[in-house]
User: What shape does this take?
Amino acid sequence: MLENESFLFDRFLSRSEYCVAGFSLGAIEALEYAIGTNKRVDRLLLFSPAFFQDKDELFKTSQIKAFKKNEKLYQEIFFKNISHPSKMDLSSYYKKDTVERLKYLLNYQYSKKILKSLESRGVKLEVFIGLKDKIIDPVNTTNFFQEFATITQIKEGGHILWID
Assistant: This one.
């Protein structure tokens, strides 16, 4: 997982106290915050939301086993895939994580009912997806969110939406 990576999304961010944003796992956390808060939220920006409900149990189990077997190798592959096609080195932004958080990320289920309730509260949902993403499937993610969100697709962007 990453921390202090918000600079990657500055060009998309709205600096409003009523805007909530998150990247990958942070997108899940931003959504959960928007659902649970009594504070005003006008916009919810999800950057490359961690979306794995289109993956089968074999995929999820293999990810967890790989993490447990060799966390360092898992991390190296993660950084290569998260940056693709960019050459940006994000290793200095790495935040050591746990297998429990990985399980949470892989098994999180976005709910259309919840997205609909946010929409009915007046929250504008915006989802940003890199079409060269190697972490999530950009097509399946787009298909899931398009009913409730404005989708911005970055043609040459990967998971971090960065273009060199």
